[in-house]
């Protein structure tokens, strides 16, 4: 699809990366349910193992179904290459792995998915890596947090929950000035609403578990490379710029140019970390992506309707959604995510923790689950579930105060969603 006309987003979400199966003509991308691939001969096998020829060896590294998905996501994001992996959290580790080493750190936004805060504040320390969390609206604080050991800047385009939109252009400016890659988690926005690479991001990571698959069936992740970062300029990224002992001294950046990060992700990351996406999961996600724009339009339209209604409800203290004019980040929507602020938001009840518990127990159409980005509408009271191990002060800082409920608005009829919340709020 790289030659010929430039297609629009709706065309690319159906076609990018795919072509009729060369062996059978199958129009839909087959699920290549195979572990290994037969070599033409011993020379072919040797060339593949030396990375002198691109092809399939073993499905921990590459699989044709997964490859279609990687190319589709990379195309939709405007990147040069992509790597799929087993979950969004795997994608984050895979994105950091080539950049980091013991003693190195990342500067990360305080406004992140709860699981990412845990991964960055606790688990990565076992690799000798660390994260400094900073308010990304305070550019001086972001600059001040960067030191000689910093190897990346990390944020979410639309942060989950809290209804926050990162000023990606401003943060990319800080990252550029420091000679560091900017990694943007684009899970909540999806490339339909926001394309971080157009705002200066180096790498984009996804939990494909959410909107890209879209119906709560499989977990997966992806990393997309813009192909624009010079990994050799600073001497800070030896995994990409210097000879790789596991490939007879091959230098990824010198050899693969803008595809260095993608090739390293497959040839070293997937090979040795093994966080591989399976072809069944890739199939489900490919099915989902075909309707991404249609779903995101409805998610967003419904979210605006439900959030506007909630804002006028007497039992509601506040609604936190960048799609509403009341949001302090509303003016960033037009620039960062011009097609809307997405389907996720939180709201606070005047009556506190017990009222929230009663609400989640009283809904019928909404499902009380720890997930987001499903065609179904979902609800969760973070303080009694995902954030219950945190102190109240930590809950408040995370946008998950005891009186806050998070909604992931689905693609049902907005009137039915409002009616369900109305009857549940009446019981509170
Ligand atoms: C869910 C999520 C993740 C983690 O993805 P998994 O697929 O659950 O591992 C990371 N970032 C954001 C914004 C998410 O919503």
Secondary-structure blueprint:
Elements: H1 9-15, H2 42-49, H3 64-77, E1 81-85, H4 88-96, E2 105-109, H5 114-121, E3 130-134, H6 139-145, E4 150-156, E5 158-159, E6 164-165, H7 168-178, E7 182-185, H8 190-193, E8 203-207, E9 221-225, H9 238-241, H10 252-256, H11 260-273, H12 279-289, H13 292-311, E10 316-320, H14 333-336, E11 344-349, H15 352-362, E12 367-368, E13 378-380, H16 392-397, E14 404-408, H17 414-426
Parallel strand pairs: 2-3, 2-4, 4-7, 7-8, 12-13
Antiparallel strand pairs: 1-9, 5-6, 8-9, 10-11, 11-14, 13-14
Helix pairs in contact: 1-3, 3-12, 13-17, 15-17
The structure holds pyridoxal-5'-phosphate (PLP).
Pyridoxal-5'-phosphate binds next to helix 4 and helix 5.
Annotation keywords:
cysteine synthase activity, 428 residues, PyrdxlP-dep_Trfase, alpha/beta, Aspartate Aminotransferase, domain 2, 14% strand, Cys/Met-Metab_PyrdxlP-dep_enz, 17 helices, five-stranded mixed β-sheet, Aspartate Aminotransferase, domain 1, seven-stranded mixed β-sheet, 2 domains, pyridoxal phosphate binding, binds pyridoxal-5'-phosphate
Would you write up a description of this structure?
By secondary structure, this protein is of the alpha/beta class. It has two domains: 10-99 and 181-288, Aspartate Aminotransferase, domain 2, CATH 3.40.640.10; 293-426, Aspartate Aminotransferase, domain 1 (Alpha-Beta Complex). It has 17 helices and 14 strands. The strands form three sheets. It has a seven-stranded mixed sheet, sandwiched between helices. The mean pLDDT is 95. Bound molecules: pyridoxal-5'-phosphate (PLP). The site of pyridoxal-5'-phosphate has 17 residues, from helix 4 and helix 5. Pyridoxal-5'-phosphate binds at residues 87-89, 113, 115-116, 156, 160, 185, 187-188, 207, 209-210, 219, 221, 372. Keywords: Pyridoxal phosphate, Transferase. The modification N6-(pyridoxal phosphate)lysine is found at residue 210.
């Amino acid at each position: 699809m790289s030659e010929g006309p430039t297609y629009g987003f709706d065309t690319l979400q159906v076609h990018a990366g795919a072509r009729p199966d060369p062996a059978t003509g199958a129009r839909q991308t087959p699920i290549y349910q195979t572990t290994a691939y037969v070599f033409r001969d011993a020379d072919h096998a040797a060339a593949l193992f030396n990375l002198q020829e691109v092809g399939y060896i073993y499905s921990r590294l590459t699989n044709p179904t997964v490859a279609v998905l990687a190319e589709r996501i990379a195309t939709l994001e405007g990147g040069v290459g992509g790597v799929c992996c087993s979950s969004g959290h795997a994608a984050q580790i895979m994105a950091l792995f080539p950049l980091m080493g013991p003693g190195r750190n990342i500067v990360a936004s305080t406004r992140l998915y709860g699981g990412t805060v845990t991964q960055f504040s606790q688990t990565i320390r076992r690799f000798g890596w660390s994260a400094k969390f900073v308010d990304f609206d305070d550019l001086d604080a972001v600059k001040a947090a960067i030191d000689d050991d910093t190897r990346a800047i990390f944020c979410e385009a639309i942060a989950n929950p809290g209804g926050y939109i990162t000023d990606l252009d401003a943060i990319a400016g800080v990252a550029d000035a420091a000679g560091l890659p900017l990694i943007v988690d684009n899970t909540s926005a999806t490339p339909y609403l926001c394309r971080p690479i157009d705002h200066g991001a180096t790498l984009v990571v996804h939990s494909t578990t959410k909107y890209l698959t879209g119906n709560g069936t499989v977990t997966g992740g992806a990393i997309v490379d813009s192909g624009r970062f010079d990994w050799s300029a600073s001497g800070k990224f030896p995994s990409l710029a210097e000879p790789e002992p596991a490939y007879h001294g091959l230098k990824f950046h010198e050899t693969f140019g803008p595809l260095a990060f993608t090739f390293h992700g497959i040839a070293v990351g997937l090979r040795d970390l093994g966080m591989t996406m399976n072809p069944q999961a890739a199939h489900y996600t490919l099915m989902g992506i075909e309707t991404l724009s249609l779903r995101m339009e409805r998610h967003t339209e419904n979210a605006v309707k439900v959030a506007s209604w909630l804002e006028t409800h007497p039992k509601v203290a506040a609604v936190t959604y960048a799609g509403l004019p009341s949001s302090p980040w509303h003016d960033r929507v037009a620039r960062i995510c011009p097609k809307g602020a997405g389907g996720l938001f939180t709201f606070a009840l005047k009556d506190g923790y017990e009222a929230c518990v009663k609400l989640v127990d009283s809904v019928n159409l909404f499902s009380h689950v720890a997930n987001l980005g499903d065609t179904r509408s979902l609800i969760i009271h973070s303080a009694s579930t995902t954030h219950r191990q945190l102190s109240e002060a930590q809950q408040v800082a995370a946008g998950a105060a005891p009186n806050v409920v998070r909604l992931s608005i689905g693609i049902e009829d907005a009137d039915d969603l409002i009616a369900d919340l109305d009857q549940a709020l009446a019981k509170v």
